[in-house]
Write a structure and sequence with these properties.
The complex is a heterodimer. Chain A is α+β, with helices and mostly antiparallel strands. Chain A folds into three domains: about 1-165, 2-Layer Sandwich (Alpha-Beta Plaits), CATH 3.30.70.270; about 175-225, 5' to 3' exonuclease, C-terminal subdomain (DNA polymerase, domain 1), CATH 1.10.150.20; about 245-380, Dna Ligase, domain 1 (2-Layer Sandwich), CATH 3.30.1490.100. Chain A has helices at about 10-20, 45-50, 60-65, 75-95, 120-135, 145-155, 170-175, 185-195, 200-205, 210-215, 220-225, 255-275, 310-325, 350-370, and strands at about 5-10, 30, 45, 70-75, 100, 105-110, 140-145, 160-165, 245-255, 280-290, 295-305, 330-340, 345. The longest helix of chain A is centred in the last third of the chain and has 21 residues, at about 255-275. Chain A is elongated and about 80 Å long. The two termini of chain A are about 55 Å apart. Chain B is of the alpha+beta class. Chain B folds into three domains: about 1-115, Roll (DNA Polymerase III, Chain A, domain 2); about 125-245, DNA Polymerase III, subunit A, domain 2 (DNA Polymerase III, Chain A, domain 2, Roll), CATH 3.10.150; about 250-365, DNA Polymerase III, subunit A, domain 2 (DNA Polymerase III, Chain A, domain 2, Roll). Helices cover about 15% and strands about 45% of the residues of chain B. Chain B has six helices and 27 strands. Chain B has helices spanning about 5-20, 70-80, 130-140, 195-205, 260-270, 325-330, and strands spanning about 1-5, 30-40, 40-45, 50-60, 60-65, 65-70, 85-90, 95-100, 105-110, 125-130, 155-165, 165-170, 175-185, 190-195, 215-220, 220-225, 230-235, 255-260, 280-290, 290-300, 300-310, 310-315, 315-320, 335-340, 350-355, 360-365, 365-369. In chain B, strands 5-1-7-8-9-6-2-3-4-17-16-15-10 form a 13-stranded antiparallel sheet. The longest helix of chain B has 12 residues, at about 5-20. The chains are: A alpha+beta, B alpha+beta.
Chain lengths: ~375, ~375
Amino acid sequence: MATIMHVDMDSFFAAVEQRDNPELRGKPVIVGGTRDSKRGVVSTCSYEARKYGVHSAMPIAQAVKLCPHGIFIPGDHKKYAAVSGQIRSVFYRFSPVVEIVSIDEAFLDMTGCEHLYGSLEDLGRAIKEQIYETVSLTASVGIGPNKFIAKLASDYRKPDGLVVVRPEEVWDWLAQFPVKKVWGIGQKTAEILASWQIYTIADLRRCRRETLVERFGKYGDTLYQLARGIDPRPVEPESETKSLGRETTFETDISALPKLRQVLAELSAEVGYRLRRHGLWARTITVKLRYHDFTTITRSASLPEPVNNDDDIFSTACQLLVKNAGSRPVRLLGIYVSQLTSFGQASLFSDPRREELARVMDELNTRHGRRVIYKGRQLPLDSGGK
Amino acid sequence: MRFATTQGEMLRCLDMVGRAVANRDVNPILTGIYLECENGRLTVRATDSEIGIEACTSVESDQPGKVVVEAKYFLPLVRRLPGGDVFVQELPEHQMLEIRAGTGSFRFQTMAADQFPALAAAEPKPLLRMPSQIAVRMIRQTVYAAQKDQGHSVFGGVLMEYADGELRFVATDTSRLCFNRAAVPNGENFKMILPARTCVELQRLLPSNPDSMLEIASLGSQVLFRLETEDVILVSRLLEGQYPDYTRVIPSQTDTEILASCSELISALERAELMGKKGPAIVTLSVEEGIMKLESRDVELGEANESLSIEQKGPSVTSAFQVRFLLDMLKTTDSDKVRMGLSSGLSPGMIRPVDDDDYIYVLMPVRVI
């Protein structure tokens, strides 16, 4: 069973302003625009302001009516982003798998690390303390077996809350919430459900899966599961491709350069294929070598323009290989490409048929689901070169 | 060695040669500046063995001689001296060079002057004589297309060739190519590849004075430029290798011809260039019915869209380029209008000043998925 932690900063922008300006503490602070701003909306307000019915996404003009003595601040997003960065660094002390949802909230996958801090409560207290030590701000933390439960839990006792929902408690705990708390249910879905006399999650559980799917399509199935506290969404860390590569460990160490070159040709072709599949080009080519004694080196070369053709990748990698192999037996050979761009500069002097060739070869190999056509340099040497 | 000159004249000579001083002390003597005085003529010289520069001036002198002093400290001193007379004297018994100016007196240790290399290893063979202004223009309109930091490849250089009364400069980094030519009579045919840095340093030395003349001479594996009026020479090594056949990549025609205002295009492209947070900015040019649309976007930043009205001959066409490549050329154009030739697909585009067939720019599009 997974353990997911949701951390949500308490009225983040307003809290930063109150932290930095003691005069604002204990007062209704509304961030989003000045009092006379015609089109502004509230982006955050302090808990003092919420007592007057002010909430985020409300037009400033309305907030002024509800809370005439409120303190209205346009907001300093650069400052908030800087504070958010400090908080983020705390998250990574707890888990490498962090999904940044927004400037003031994140999911942390704590699966397998639950007991490093004692109990789950101790874990929640530890992260709250470290955030407070770092930025002097309070956070509300929810811990549960999945993202849905964790987020609901962090929201349960705001501000400065800590709520742990164990797997065996989920069923009963969840029953009490109005359906609007379910991920993905907005005004419209809530109205439809209300017309079926469904107001709470307990009510929702009475719906048959088929009924929900019939009315809401695929989401109906999700709804059915969420009502039962089931949410399979993983915590997804930022996933921009920064580099890609391929490496291989040999069964027996290799020192012969021709053999290494053949393997490199093979690896270059695989990396090139992946680059082209992703519509990417790379400016830096890196060769990784692990020698028989486990010393490992990486050597890189940067090209004037990004490439994704096997020939360019191979010829650059080969130069790096020749400089660093040939005498010592090699255990592992790898090739990595980085400094990726989403465009490729065409060359005046290269044959345009080369691109076409790569395209046709990729298409054939993709269609057959395996390598059916490749360059001669990839041919294993012991096959006699035929 | 003993001579008198002015601070201004001394600094003028030192500033001209200063850029040729070696940065790293592979050979310590090359971190120095060579001063030689003979027959009332002061010669100042520096070289890093890739390029060498020598500047001369008349001085009042009663003792000939030669010394080498460390450039890194000598040059700033002369720059900081008060204007007016400067007296320079070698003190051989101390191996020092003494400089006096105003109430100040300064001494520098000297290095062995006879170890300082001469610039020209062979007798120069004159090839061509031309107005400096032409060279200034030709360098300005080519050198930017040479590959940066590719010291030994021919793409890191500028091809300079002379044939049939025509001087041609060509530079390419394989993504774009600059071609420039000028009619210059009475020369010997030649073909050489200059390191881009040599062109930049020569450009810096060349005056805009319309009467100034430049002489080009061969030294075998080196080239010599003599600025006649200014009494300065620059010697440079040449790049070895085969320069690609550039005539092959200049398209004889393109699908669509466009006539556009250079300044409007520059302004629009400079805005589009801002969409280059994640990588170099790319602009897609779509030409249709006398309108050129410029679109660029950056996944982390946003997008820029605008339209220019242009004159169009030929069908609608769309092509994407690196914004910098377009700007590089447009900013070196003297005309206020440019002719742009575009073709669909991955065929090269071409830009020329409206009334000038001597400056041709060919650039390859980018593939965007």
